[in-house]
Amino acid sequence: MKIHRILISVLLALGAMTSYAQRATRVTVSGFVSEKRSAERMVGVNVYVPKLKIGTITNNYGYYSLSLPRGKHTLVFSMLGFATQQFEIDLKRDTIINVEIQEEIAELEEVVIIADKKQAENVQMSSIDLPLKTVKKIPMLFGETDLLRAIQYLPGVQSGNEGFTGIYVRGGSPDQNLILLDGVPVYNASHLFGFFSVFNSDAIKSVQLYKGGFPARFAGRLSSVIDITMKEGNMRKFGGEGSVGLIASRLTVEGPIIKDKASFIFSGRRTYLDVLSQPLISVQTDDATGGYYFGDFNGKINYVINSKNRLYLSYYGGIDKFFFRDRSNFGTHTETVEGGLQWGNNTGSLRWNHLFNNKMFVNTTFNYTRYRFTTYLSQTHSTDPSQNLLARFFSYIQDFSLRSDWEYALNPNHYLRFGVSSILHDFRPGALQVKDNQANIDSLVDFSKRIQSVENGLYVEDEISLNNRTKVNIGLHYAQNFVKGVTYQGLQPRLSGRYMLSDKTSLKASYVLMQQFIHLLSNTGIGLPTDLWVPATDKVKPQIAHQGAVGATYSMNSTYEFSAEAYYKHMSNLIEYKNGASYYSTVDWQSQVHTGGRGWSYGLELFAEKKLGNTTGWIGYTLSWSWRQFKELNNGLPYPFRFDRRHDISIVLNHKFSERFDIGFTWVYGTGIATNIPMGQFATLPIDFWSGYSPVYINPDQLTAVFYFGPRNSFRMPAYHRADIGFNFHKKLTIGIERTWNISLYNLYSRRNPFFIYIDYYNNNNPDRGVYKLVSLFPIIPSVSYNLKF
After folding, report:
1. Long-range CB pairs of 302-305, under 8 A, 24+ apart, other chains included
2. For 534-558, what is each residue's pLDDT tens digit?
3. Beta bridge partner(s), residue 451
4. Do the Cβ atoms of 428 and 444 come closer than 8 Å?
5. pLDDT band per the 50, 70, 90 thresholds, residue 657
6. How far apart are CA 731 and CA 790, in angstroms?
7. How far is Cα 208 from Cα 211, in angstroms, rounded to an integer?
8. What is the SS3 assignment for 543-589?
9. Structure confidence by residue, pLDDT tens digits, 406-459
């Protein structure tokens, strides 16, 4: 294929940049960096040579590689919160140095000096690493630590409705976020109809958010990438942690299968809302049961074959279930009616890490992911099976994918990444299964036909140091999608660069083009399980986005970091449900949507973070605009996106009073979201009114109220703001065992934040006009949880 030859030519040209003299005088030092206590490989550790002012960081699997001149060097390994490791080496040939680092508070200041230099020199912009320790100290809702709720506190990320974990990044919608768990997409990231995320923080090692400036290795979404890596499991000793909260409990265990050779980690969580609600249901009738629960399970096994090969097997399964059962006794027989909703994700991956040599690292994965939603109703007769009846509506999206990613440390000025991927998508937007024994019916009807598509990708990126002050990341991603006899393809250029004004200050800029071959149909905006994933087809084109950003970063005193970014993003080929359309329909989804929509957003993001000391945290501010435009909507005129918020402020603080007590505090403010409500009403008469009634006498029952709506999303809800506080009480019970009590207050001053607004025409003094009524979900909510780490 022509594009393949182009990319191979680019690789060969970049490789030719290394002169013969460099190859003759340079050698390579490489290896893995692990955490000493568990032997778990560390992501993002800084590897630095102070004299030459060059360095690198470990990749997602703890691997690093540096080409250096022959001779004596000082090699420094550092990471925030870990003791610095320093080695004096005399390089005469290619050398492998595997390093173990450990937490050590006493050396924290020394660690951060090196770590800050990495932040200042990093070419990546619009990206934030979210420490898991910080996530766990954020005040909790119902005692549940929540990763996606913590991401909502970052600038450029808008939260959805009150209490929900949906995220809207730089004017994008939820389907434009690529959420990866160990490299596998998770299509529905919410539990409890959107109140909690599916990620168990006890099983997670690292989280990185990309809002723009996407490296070429990422593709398939327009607005963000949330890259979540699971822990590998302790290779040296058994341990774990658990928590008991108001609505759920969780437990994580890990340990060696073969010491320093193989390990495991298993983590489970389940709510007991169904158990708590059962007494309330039993008050109504002894023959009825029902309720709701959600649960998760994470598992991972890793095995070291030898110094150059390692295998990982990981799995995630989650379920939400709302159900009811009613049994009626008729003397000679009983009849049972059951029904409910059920939805959940299943993901799995088999991963192979291989070192070809001391400069080339390859990661090959086979992935599987599925999201399925089902609603069902059945009737069962105890003595006459011919009267049994079952009706079940379901939809799903399912992927099988194969991917290979290569990293080649060419020399200190060039770090190459390239790779290929192929995904088989299987979409079933809606199907109805009916089994009626009495009518002898057993059929399956696809309201929207099952569609399969193949998405291929090929990328190359090179991180180039032009001089001591200037570094760029140049990338190109080629995407190709086959669906229903149509082929969509295109090149997606990626460019990021930074220029160092000083050792502490840098200027950055980026441009990316992204394509997305799947859509999410939603008419709620809050990420309910009834939202449908559908593909680009011959009638519905893939989404496209262009995004540019400029920014500056300043690090001060190894403790404070400040950044500012301005961005502009333009999106095309967006889709939207038609008025009155829904997921449960007997017609194909393609006839229920408006296509060819445009969207654009722009804004300014400010971020100030304090990393060290007894008080840590950040303040974020976003000033933004977000617009949509469809020919069929709002008379073809632009209108504000539903989650367009002019101002968004977040404050996240943690103060450590002692080793036994600390406090977490958050405060958020956001301009009210845009929505549609009636601006007025008028009355109409039936068409045959004049033929059957005298115009002198008008019966009010003959009148029909018609609501008048203004321009789309022209009404703003009241501003949203809320404060939360959490108190953490720690105690070491014995050697190696620590317990923590967490007491949190959600919505500290009980702000009545808007969930939705309706017009009340009856319970007010002016029934002709009505009164706007605001509905809120959460007043102040206290919660408590007991956490144990061993």
Report:
1. 302/232, 302/233, 302/262, 302/263, 303/257, 303/261, 303/262, 304/260, 304/261, 304/262
2. 899 988 999 999 999 999 999 887 7
3. 427
4. no
5. very high
6. 12
7. 10
8. EEEEEEEEEEEEEECCCEEEEEEEEEEEEEEEEEECCCCCCCCCCCH
9. 999 888 888 999 999 999 999 988 877 788 877 777 777 777 788 999 999 999
8 A C-beta contact, residue 666 and residue 139: yes
To which residue do tokens 């956001």 refer?
670
Q: How many CB atoms lie within 10 A of CB 572?
A: 16
Cβ neighbours of 758 (radius 10 Å): 13
Q: CA 190 to CA 202: how far, in whole Å?
A: 17
Cα 101 from Cα 33, distance rounded (Å):
7
- Looking up tokens 């100290």 gives 137
Secondary structure (3-state) at 183: coil
Task: State the Cα–Cα distance between residues 665 and 652, nearest whole angstrom.
Answer: 6
What CA–CA distance (Å, rounded) separates 643 from 630? 17
Three-class secondary structure assignment of 117-160? HHHHHCCCCCEEECCHHHHHHCCCECCECCHHHHHCCCCCEEEC
Secondary structure (H, E, C), 327-347 = EEECCCCEEEEEEEEEEEEEE
- DSSP lists the bridge partners of residue 111 as none
CB of 593 within 8 A of CB of 601?
Answer: no
Cα–chain center distance at 330:
51
State which H helix or E strand residue 513 sits in.
strand 505-516
Query: How far is the C-alpha of 653 from the C-alpha of 657, rounded, in Å?
Result: 13
Across-strand partners of 443?
A: 434
pTM: 0.88
Which pLDDT value is given to residue 756?
75
DSSP string, 548-559: EEEEEEEEETTT
Count of beta carbons in the 10 Å neighbourhood of residue 744: 25
3-state secondary structure 748-781: CCCCCCCCEEEEECCCCCCCCCCEEEEECCCCCE
CA distance 209 to 788: 29
The Cα 630–Cα 595 span in angstroms is 8
Report whether 644 contacts 625 (CB < 8 A). yes
Q: Which helix (H) or strand (E) holds 782?
A: strand 781-789
Q: Report CA torsion sign: 189, 227, 367, 203.
A: negative
Sign of CA dihedral 176, 181, 182, 184: negative
Is the separation of the CB atoms in 632 and 575 below 8 Å? no
Q: What burial letters (b/e) apply to 325-357, b meaning 16+ CB within 10 Å? A: bebeeeeeeebeebbbbbbbbbbbbebebbbee
Amino acid at 351: R
Q: Which domains does the chain show, CATH number per domain?
A: 2-121 (2.60.40.1120), 127-676+783-789 (2.40.170.20)
Nearest to 463 by CA among 418, 506, 502: 418
Q: How far is CA 150 from CA 173, 497, 563, 619, in A?
A: 18, 28, 19, 13
d(CA 144, CA 160): 19
Q: Are strands 95-96 and 26-35 parallel, antiparallel or unpaired?
A: parallel
Would you give the distance in Å from CA 26 to the centre of its chain?
41
The residue with tokens 């995407």 is 479
